[in-house]
Amino acid sequence: MPHGVLVTRPGGPEVLKYVEIEPETPGPGELLVEVLAAGVNYFDIYQREGIVPHQTPFGLGLEGAGTVLGVGAGVTGFATGDRVAWMDGAGSYADQVVVKESVAVRVPDGIPDDTAAATLLQGVTAQLLVTSTYPLGPGDTALVHAAAGGVGLLLVQLAKAEGATVIGTVSTPDKEELARQAGADEVIRYTEADFADEVARLTGGRGVEVVYDGVGATTFDGSLACTARRGMLVLFGAASGPVPPVDPQRLNAAGSVFLTRPKAEDYTVTPDELRGRASEVFDAVAAGTLSVRIGGRYPLSSARAAHEDLQGRRTTGKLLLVP
Description:
Layout: E1 3-7, E2 16-20, E3 30-40, H1 42-49, E4 58-59, E5 64-71, E6 83-86, E7 96-100, E8 104-106, H2 113-133, E9 141-144, H3 150-161, E10 165-170, H4 173-182, E11 186-189, H5 195-202, E12 208-213, H6 220-226, E13 227-235, H7 249-253, E14 258-260, H8 271-287, E15 294-299, H9 303-311, E16 318-322
Parallel strand pairs: 9-10, 9-12, 10-11, 12-13, 13-14, 15-16
Antiparallel strand pairs: 1-2, 1-4, 3-5, 3-7, 3-16, 5-6, 6-8
Helix pairs in contact: 2-3, 2-8, 5-6
């Protein structure tokens, strides 16, 4: 019998249970995949805690990589034995998962399964943030919060590839070193200095054209203060909790600032759009111009420990569960 990780009720990491699950059969337009690595991200935590409501019990996890075990009726793009990755496969914390053909991406030769699992969701997220949400270019300065995290390290690299100047925020000297290795021009340890004051100093009071904020509640006010006139505050996550409702007049007072809350689903509406973005990211990984850091590999049965480490900000890069 295959195993998986269920959320038994909304709550902390202790509600995660490693259990036997019923084998699945792919339906029309679906793939049955042997999961070789599953990604851990903050959206999983939002689901586990009930911030994103879900009827319990349910299988946790959305992203991973593995090998196709079988295909359902009407599937034409994949066959048994193909290596695939996905970022929208409910119940991916498991030995096996069923995913829709429309959300599967072929893993190029030369990219290991764990690298593919660590790359797709966060790589596509970083790619869309710097090319579509706010198209960066030479002359732009970007502030990247949690610059040593999974998305943060990719954001720094892709922003530099677009010609931007990058300021990162981190909490420790080790994380500062990782952010600098990724290409950050300046790094602020927010545990030792007010990052808004430091951004003002570094930019001569002008602020930055774009702030990429995946932290949320604890950084939002400072992020708004860092955003230049007619700049954009991109709130793409809430690692520290959701941001309270915002009075639009605050955007006026901050300098006619734009505020957006993007999600990958709205930038990968069609299979072609998804695969186009994924191809750009995988090509960069294969070429060696985009480095993917796997910060931890945990047995599937240790999903609780992975969640505790991620929420405790004890990690860098991407965390994976390995069945």
